[in-house]
Amino acid sequence: MKLYLMAAVMLAAPLPALADLDTLREQGFARIAIGNEPPYTAVGSDGKVSGAGPDVAREVFKRLGVADVEASILEYGAMIPSLQAGRVDAVTAGLFMKPERCAAVAYSQPILCDAEALLVPKGNPKNFQFYADIAKDETARLGAPGGGTEEKLALDAGVPRDRLIVVPDPQSGLKMLQDGRIDAYSLPVLSLNELLAKSGDAGLEIFAPVKDAPVYCDGAAFNKKDTALRDAFDVELAKMKESGDFAKIVEPYGFSAEAALSTDRDTLCAAPQ
């Protein structure tokens, strides 16, 4: 993968024509905009680009007959203007779908998703899948950060305040679960994946996504005039999801393939943020 740093002054450059799939195949690469925000995107000291977003884009474009991708590191505020100006062919950078963004770009189906998750004992013995499941179990205690999204979602689902234990930090939540002081600990998927990986505790597992909680996802973003390219991208992305190849790319980075499969572009673009 080639890497180019795109300076802000380039925003004043003449506008190149939008590329269709045949053009991308002929030139041998697609231009993608990325950030430098692991695990979504990452740039090593040697300039090598990795991260879940570029890795998925590289594989999809390869399957479309486009041999490589060229990555430009941009600030998030410059990504959509650069896409609209035709200076990049796609944005693959953790640019989460919001209604206003969906009005400005043509998103693919979901790729990288963060969602609420539950850290539970191995086998999920109480079969918690919803915050409402915890509310219904009169003996269940849930740990969550005080004042955070998880606390609000649990309270809204009916978990009583006296069974919602405020946890000051992830390590404390892990310890409380290990000691049996709580029955589940809730944080976003990425946070719990990292916590569990560092703990090395084989007696715990993660359930995600929590089924009565919102899912937040990005997709590859394309110029509104490039819907044919977006649609071709979606076809190959769907094949990867069905075969399990998609999960093999995103899950080592801590993302939940199941979360991406649990929702779709129309739902995410319509959801209030």
Automatic annotation (TrEMBL):
Instruction: Show the SUPFAM superfamilies listed in the entry.
Output: Periplasmic binding protein-like II (SSF53850)
What one GO molecular function would you report for this record? ectoine binding
Give the UniProt keywords, A-Z.
Answer: Plasmid, Signal
User: Keyword Signal, does the record have it?
Assistant: yes
Q: Which residue ranges does the record assign to the Solute-binding protein family 3/N-terminal domain?
A: 29-257
Q: Kindly list the biological process annotations in GO that this record carries.
A: ectoine transmembrane transport
Q: Which Gene3D superfamilies match?
A: Periplasmic binding protein-like II
Q: What is this protein called?
A: Ectoine/hydroxyectoine ABC transporter substrate-binding protein EhuB
InterPro entries reported in the protein's UniProt record: Ectoine_EhuB (IPR014337), Solute-binding_3/MltF_N (IPR001638)
